[in-house]
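Sharing a chain and its predicted structure for anyone who wants a worked example. Both blocks are below, sequence first, tokens second.
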Amino acid sequence: MACDICGKTGETLEDLKSEYQTKDIKQICSKCLCETNDHIWKLRKMSNKMNESWTRRFMENLKYKFST
């Protein structure tokens, strides 16, 4: 079988988690898996920073609301 992203053959393929699978991408090679995982972690880091910022802003607004 070939990697669903790069088409490389002759390597062990990894099954993607169901939430990351698409209609055409279900199994990928280890190199594509590393690239995919790196991208996922970058997105999670960015999402966590946004959530922290929104939570901080919410708490500041809540404090202001109760202080007035």
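Comments welcome. The helical segments are 30-67.
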